[in-house]
Specification:
Length: about 290
C-alpha cells in the first residue's frame, strides 16, 4: 500500500486535478494507493506520521506541503527510511530546482516503483523539520504577504509582496551562534538557513548549497537600508549577489538565533510565530527521495 498526501489547494487546484492521474498510474501497475487530502483541520504533518508503515509516501503539493510531510516523516527522529515521491504542483516549487526528480508525475511515480532513491539531508528546526530553506527577517515578511496573493498572481505574488515589504522593512536585532560559538550580535536584514539553493519563486539565494553534503549553508545579510534592499532582490534574481560585502556564507552543522521579541520563521514557505531561540541542526541523509 502506498499513501498519497494531497494539498487540494496547491497550484490553484492543480494538486486535486492530479489525483486521478496518480490513482490511474498506480492501478495500471498493480499497486494500491490510499489518497488523503489536507484540510484546515488535518495537515500534511499528521497524515505523514500515519503513513510511515506504507511502501512509500507520495507528496502532491508545493514546498509548504512538502515541509509538513518531511516533518511528519521524521517526527523528531534523525532519519526516515520510508521512500518519498515528490510531485511538485505548488506556486513556487523551489525545492525541485535543487534535485533531479522526474519532469512528469508519471516519471516521478516510476522512480518510486523502481526503488530508485537518493538520501538527502533535512534540517531540524526546533520541534519541526524542513528540507529546503528556513529564513528569518525581510524574506519572511515577503512570504507572509505573498500568501493571500497567490490565488490571484501565482509566482508573481512574491515580486509584488517584495516591493510592499521593502517599503515597510525594519532590520532585526539578532544574536547568532554557529556550531556553539557566538558569531554576531547586531542588526540583520535577513538570515537564511539553507539546505537547497532556491526560495521565493526562483531566487537562488544559496548557489553553493548541496542537499546531501551534511552541511547547512548559512546566508547572513547584514543591516541594509530600504534603498539597498530594492537593489538586493534583482541581484539575487540575476545571481549577482554572492560577492556583496553585506552577505556572508558559512557552512556549518548547527545554528542558534535569538531575538528580543517574538519572531516569524519561514520553513519552506510555511510561516510560524515563535518565542525564544531558534535552533537549527543538519540531519545528514535523513530522507529517501525517489529520483
Amino acid at each position: 500500500m502506498y499513501h498519497c498526501i494531497v494539498n487540494p489547494a496547491a497550484g490553484r487546484g492543480k494538486g486535486r486535478k492530479l489525483i486521478p492521474v496518480i490513482e490511474s498510474f498506480m492501478k495500471a501497475h498493480g499497486k494500491e494507493v490510499k489518497t488523503s487530502e489536507t484540510s484546515q483541520d488535518i495537515n500534511a504533518n499528521y497524515l505523514a506520521k500515519n503513513a510511515l508503515n506504507s511502501q512509500g509516501i507520495i507528496c502532491l503539493g508545493g514546498d509548504g506541503t512538502l515541509q509538513e510531510v518531511v516533518s511528519g516523516m521524521l517526527n523528531g527522529q534523525d532519519k526516515c527510511n520510508t521512500p518519498l515521491c515528490v510531485i511538485p504542483c505548488g506556486s513556487g516549487n523551489d525545492w525541485q530546482r535543487s534535485v533531479n526528480i522526474g519532469k512528469t508525475p508519471e516519471a516521478c511515480l516510476q522512480a518510486l516503483l523502481n526503488g530508485k532513491t537518493r538520501a538527502i539531508d533535512a534540517i531540524r528546526a526546533n520541534d519541526s523539520a524542513n528540507i529546503n530553506i528556513a529564513n528569518i527577517g525581510l524574506d519572511v515578511e515577503i512570504v507572509k504577504r505573498a500568501q493571500p496573493l497567490k490565488k490571484i498572481f501565482g509566482t508573481k505574488s512574491y515580486t509584488i509582496s517584495a516591493l510592499i515589504s521593502i517599503v515597510l522593512h525594519k532590520n532585526k536585532p539578532l544574536t547568532i551562534h554557529i556550531d556553539g560559538e557566538e558569531y554576531s550580535n547586531g542588526n540583520f536584514t535577513l538570515v537564511a538557513i539553507c539546505n537547497g539553493q532556491y526560495y521565493g519563486g526562483n531566487m537562488r539565494i544559496a548557489p553553493s548549497a548541496v542537499i546531501d553534503d551534511g552541511k547547512i549553508t548559512l546566508c547572513v545579510i547584514s543591516a541594509l537600508s530600504r534603498l539597498q534592499c530594492l537593489t538586493l532582490f534583482p541581484l539575487v534574481l540575476l545571481q549577482q549577489h554572492t560577492n556583496l560585502k553585506a552577505i556572508k556564507y558559512i557552512d556549518c552543522k548547527k545554528v542558534t538565533i535569538a531575538a528580543k521579541n517574538q519572531q516569524s520563521l519561514s520553513l519552506d514557505g510555511n510561516v510560524y510565530e515563535l518565542e525564544g531561540a531558534l535552533n537549527f541542526e543538519i540531519l545528514p541523509k535523513a530522507i529517501q527521495i525517489s529520483e
